[in-house]
Amino acid sequence: MKSFILRSHRLLYAFLLLGGIACAFPAQAGYRITTIDFPGAIITQTFGINNQGKIAGGASADGVSTISFVYDAKKATFTVLPNVSGLDTAAVGINEPGVVVGAVTDLATTIQSGFILDKGAFTIFDHPGSQFFTVGRGINNAGLVSGYADTDGGTTVSGFIFDPKRNTFTDFLPSNFTIAHGINNKGDVVGNASLNSGDAYPGSPAGNYGFLRRSDGTITLFRVNGVATRARGITDAGVITGDADGSGFVTTLAPGADFQAVTIPAANLLTVPGALQTIPEGIGNSGNVVGIWLDGDANFHGFLAEPTK
Predict the structure, then answer these.
(1) Number of H helices and number of E strands within the chain?
(2) pTM of the model
(3) What SS3 class is residue 267?
(4) φ, ψ for residue 268, nearest 5 deg
(5) Is the dihedral of CA 273, 34, 104, 140 positive or negative?
(6) What are the structural domains of the chain?
(7) 232-248 burial code (b ≥16 CB/10 A, e <16)
(8) Distance from C-alpha of 96 to C-alpha of 299, rounded to nearest angstrom
(9) Inter-residue contact 272 to 29 (CB < 8 Å)
(10) What is the pLDDT of residues 153-173, one digit of tens each?
(11) Phi, psi (rounded to 5 degrees) for 276
(12) CA 186 to CA 31: how far, in whole Å?
């Protein structure tokens, strides 16, 4: 684990008032949806939200390099985060104290490492044995980081919980591709996994599933409306958001089962009006959801969905 502090001249914070709000849509499935676009960017993506309304995300003006930011939904302002020198830096998750996690990429080799950014200090971390990528996706108030990395010589991808205080990784649900994303303050983690026919998970044949890994280590796989499902955020109360074949959902799971089939009527799915795809990425305890939507010209935008009831 490598740790260093960026010098003060690298800590360039830009405050951009109101310029990121493109438009606000009326309630959709009980939500008021606001688009978040970073000024001058052709791509904006929002991933994690804390209970103060601070949103971690990234944008790009050229489609290659990333501008990482924290967006304050209450003030409608962006704070541009520092970069790790020489590396593309992408912010994904944020906790209540404002600690941010994500990944840094060497654009020459495309090798990725995870990072934790706390009060201007970057900690870079790599999963033991990882050859190609270690990515941080979420962080809770205890500082535990959820994410994923290539394991077994690059043949599988595992989700993990990284404890930076002890410099330890807890791996779970190795598959063709497992993403561990949201983590709540109880230590529950959600994400998705792509299972082969030989993977031994009861009730779950080959395919793509959302998962909930509880803090005791038990795992429940699930699908929403019978389609490929990706879980992305979880509240302390266990409310889960994500997308099912390009439509957003918000749901809870029953305790105990190895697999659950979740049915949500189309009218109750979370979709941005006019979007080709709506992909929730995070949820706060108030029920506010953030994520990404794709327009008809294949442009990505961030969004904030606030419950209206």
Answers:
(1) 0, 27
(2) 0.90
(3) helix
(4) -100, 0
(5) negative
(6) 2-307 (2.120.10.30)
(7) bbbbeebbbbbbbebbb
(8) 30
(9) no
(10) 888 999 999 999 999 999 999
(11) -75, -35
(12) 26
